[in-house]
Design a protein that fits this description.
Layout: E1 9-14, E2 18-27, E3 30-40, H1 50-65, E4 89-94, E5 100-105, H2 109-120, E6 125-131, H3 139-149, E7 153-158, H4 166-180, E8 189-194, H5 199-206, E9 212-214, H6 228-242, E10 260-262, H7 263-278, E11 281-287, E12 292-298, E13 301-307, H8 316-323, H9 325-329, H10 340-350, H11 359-382, E14 396-402, H12 404-407, H13 412-423, E15 427-434, H14 439-445, H15 450-458, E16 463-470, E17 472-473, E18 480-488, E19 493-499, E20 503-520, E21 524-525, E22 531-546, H16 558-573
Parallel strand pairs: 1-4, 4-10, 5-6, 5-7, 7-8, 8-9, 11-14, 14-15, 16-22
Antiparallel strand pairs: 1-2, 2-3, 11-12, 12-13, 15-16, 17-21, 18-19, 18-20, 20-22
Length: 591
């Protein structure tokens, strides 16, 4: 882009809660983040115009920098003119609004419907009907099911290219009958991604009634990514669908050069990008106030789960209901009072941006975060296609976090501790934090200008937080688990022993490097090794050595749990002694 005259890039992400704006520009010959702002979203009532929030954010940037973005008519100035007026390129991503009401139509649930549903996850599919040969319905009921579900989109899949035709033709005829029964203004778009030899038949049957888009067959046995042509079709549909969502997107369509791309699609693209560029299994976590995402990439596989009912703000109450109070209580160093967790979750929904009021609320937040991410991980693991490998985090090498819930604590070691518990991590895992919410924009930019993405990443746009070195196995509590020999970049050396059940945080500032040698006790491994010799980078979280092994045995008393957890938190916060808690917390509540 730079060589072609594209220097300044405006990236805007429209969320249900916030509108986030990032401005990239050429600095000393390379792309860098030069400004960013976040404002409240103006999707929905009473404004229902996303451009209002965008103008507010750009107005704040203009006031701070002197840069002008709009002409007298209120149009975004493109390309950039002299004296820093306007921008060259505009990227828009979005997650605001309800999901796409989608009917999945295919032959068999496991090899037709499930792959189609997975392809739609990063496009916020709200699956309202599944029609297939094993659905237990007759043809009349299938037609009624499609009509009654009022889909925005019907995604058709199934069959082998050049294979049997009659079953799929029967389904296409049922779809035609259903479409004809719908009012003309409420008919869905059809994306056909089934038996390739029937693509023309799908057009012939349906194109005079509705828009029909054709993509390659979704291979039922493929473990690889969704075919790029299908992703392109879904991208095009998402953009067009967004423009029909009332007036919210009406005034931003003309600003965007990329089209409106789903935010989750950008996260998924960058998860695969990091997995390829770093050569390790990679997990991205975006935990927000109302929506959450996990995306996992490993050896050509890419799997994503998006939930609109898991979050630490508006969705806190539904998160608690889904995970259950027991999953939260196991991470509390005290007995929760009757209805305390439910009341806390309700308050989070009302004041999601506010910090915890006291230490007790912080511990509940930490526990809810662990349980919520654990629930997301189980949902990711449940998304299992025939022939695909189960999600296995034992080989995970990189965790990328996004969303202020995880990245905004300012304590990188604490973040690593909480995620180690939530994901039950093992071995050596590096952590990065997307503190600016840039990953969705980078995902879109990677398709047209990968070098800009590389430059932005090398410039520190996504922060390296630190590394977790976590042991597993069995050993006597209190005995030495790990023996460390450490040499820092300034030449200083340190020998340290870590006991079973403890964690130890070694500060290592950004830009530094640390050589470590680790020897484990009998019965303990780090990954699959007893000895390690490696060099690790410093970061905000430094290095976290974790020898807790069996972290939360069910038979321990609340006092034993409290002593351990307070010791862990003291270690990651740099406190020389654990923070004491009131003795009343350890008493069994009367009600």
């Amino acid at each position: 882009m730079g060589e072609a005259g594209t220097n300044s890039i405006l990236a805007v992400d429209f969320g249900s809660v916030h509108t986030r704006v990032l401005l990239f520009d050429i600095v000393d010959g390379e792309y860098r983040l030069v400004a960013n702002r976040q404002t409240k979203s103006t999707a929905g009532a009473p404004v229902d115009d996303l451009a209002v929030g965008l103008r507010q954010a750009l107005g704040e940037i203009a006031s701070a920098s002197g840069r002008r973005f709009f002409d007298p008519r209120g149009e975004l100035i493109k390309p950039e003119q002299s004296d820093r007026v306007g921008v060259d390129y505009c990227i828009t991503t979005a997650s605001a609004g309800a999901g796409i009401r989608t009917a999945l139509l295919g032959l068999l649930p496991d090899i037709s419907i499930k792959p189609a549903g997975r392809a739609g996850v990063p496009f916020y599919f709200n699956v309202v009907a599944e029609i297939h040969l094993d659905d237990g319905m007759n043809d009349r009921a299938r037609v009624n099911r499609i009509v009654d579900s009022r889909p925005d989109l019907v995604l058709v899949s199934g069959g082998t290219d050049g294979g049997a035709r009659s079953a799929m033709l029967q389904m296409l005829n049922l779809l035609r009958e259903a479409v004809m029964a719908m009012p003309a203004g409420l008919r869905p778009t059809i994306i056909y991604a089934g038996n390739n030899s029937l693509a023309q038949s799908a057009r012939d049957l349906l194109s005079q009634l509705v828009e029909v888009m054709v993509a390659p067959n979704i291979r039922p046995t493929s473990r690889r990514l969704t075919p790029e042509p299908l992703l392109a079709a879904l991208d095009q549909y998402y953009h067009e669908f967004s423009l029909t969502r009332g007036g919210a997107y009406r005034n931003i369509a003309g600003m965007s050069d990329s089209g409106i791309t789903p935010t989750a699609r950008g996260y998924e693209t960058m998860t695969a990008f990091f997995a390829r560029s770093h050569g390790v299994d990679t997990l991205t976590i975006d935990l927000g106030g109302s929506k959450s995402l996990l995306s996992f990439a490993a050896k050509g596989e890419l799997r994503t789960v998006v939930r609109t009912d898991i979050g630490m703000g508006q969705s806190a109450a539904s998160t608690l209901e889904l995970v259950g109070e027991g999953a939260v209580k196991q991470w509390l160093p005290f007995h929760a009072r009757r209805d305390e967790l439910a009341q806390h979750a309700l308050k989070k929904g009302l004041r999601s941006a506010a910090a915890a009021l006291d230490m007790r609320e912080r511990y509940i937040d930490y526990a809810l975060l662990r349980a919520g991410i654990g629930y997301l991980l189980e949902a990711l693991r449940a998304d299992q296609l025939a022939g695909s490998r189960p999600v296995d985090l034992t080989r995970l090498g990189l965790v990328i976090t996004s969303g202020a819930t995880i990245t905004g604590s300012g304590q990188g070691a604490l973040d690593m501790l909480l995620l180690a518990d939530a994901l039950d991590l093992q071995g050596v895992v590096n952590f990065k934090a997307d503190r600016h919410g840039a990953l969705p924009a980078l995902g879109v930019l990677s398709a047209t200008e990968p070098m800009a993405v590389v430059q932005l990443l090398e410039g520190g746009l996504v922060e390296h937080v630190g590394s977790l070195i976590r042991a597993g196995g069995r050993a006597t509590p209190g005995k030495t688990a790990l023996k460390l020999h450490i040499r820092s970049s300034n030449g200083k050396t340190l020998d340290r022993e870590i006991a079973v059940g403890d964690v130890w945080h070694l500060p290592a500032p950004p830009g530094s490097s640390v050589e470590i040698r680790v020897q484990t006790a009998r019965g303990i491994r780090i990954g699959d090794k007893r000895r390690l010799n490696m060099q690790l980078r410093g970061g905000r979280g430094g290095l976290l050595f974790d020898a807790r092994l069996d972290r939360a045995p069910a038979e321990e008393s609340i006092t034993e749990r409290a002593v351990k957890m307070l010791r862990w938190f003291a270690a990651v916060s740099g406190e020389s002694q654990p923070v004491m808690i009131p003795e009343s917390w350890l008493a069994t509540p009367d009600s």
